[in-house]
Specification:
By secondary structure, this protein is an alpha+beta fold. The chain has three helices and four strands; from the N terminus they run E-E-H-E-E-H-H.
């Protein structure tokens, strides 16, 4: 369970998020809605540790993450996805939606390459004499 208690951030005299307390239960979907500038993204940035809170607490399964940096929150099990709306700007809306749905299916977005073994070899690090791995022929198909 993810929980925030009295989460607040101030930028000078402006309070962007003011004492927000919320509980997010595992397996449920919750929408945070509001107009532009309401503080939705700032709230997520506070939860994930991208911004330092002015006051309040963040808990994950009872563990207080409030003073941990974003990297430590990730190691504790808190994930964050950023809102990117233009990952594939040259694809149609239908193609973008299809890719999103396809990505939820186990193994649907990956297929083995007939030109390479399943486990890639350990390529040397860049340096003198470094060569790129050979290009897979199926990438051009």
């Amino acid at each position: 369970m993810l929980q925030t208690r009295e989460l607040t951030i101030r930028f000078g005299g402006h309070v962007a998020v003011n004492s927000v307390s919320c509980t997010f239960e595992p397996g449920t979907l919750t929408a945070i809605v509001g107009p532009n500038g309401a503080g939705k993204t700032t709230y997520f940035n506070l939860i994930s540790g991208q911004l330092p809170m002015s006051a309040g607490q963040v808990f994950l399964d009872g563990q207080d993450l409030s003073r941990l940096p974003a990297s430590a929150r990730t190691r504790a099990g808190l994930g964050r996805a950023f809102q990117l709306t233009n990952l594939f700007p040259h694809l149609s809306v239908l193609e973008n939606v299809r890719l999103a749905v396809q990505a939820t299916q186990p193994g649907a977005h990956w297929r083995p390459c007939p030109d390479r073994p399943l486990a890639p070899p350990a390529w040397p690090s860049p340096g003198p004499g470094h060569r790129r791995p050979p290009r897979c022929r199926c990438a051009a198909r």
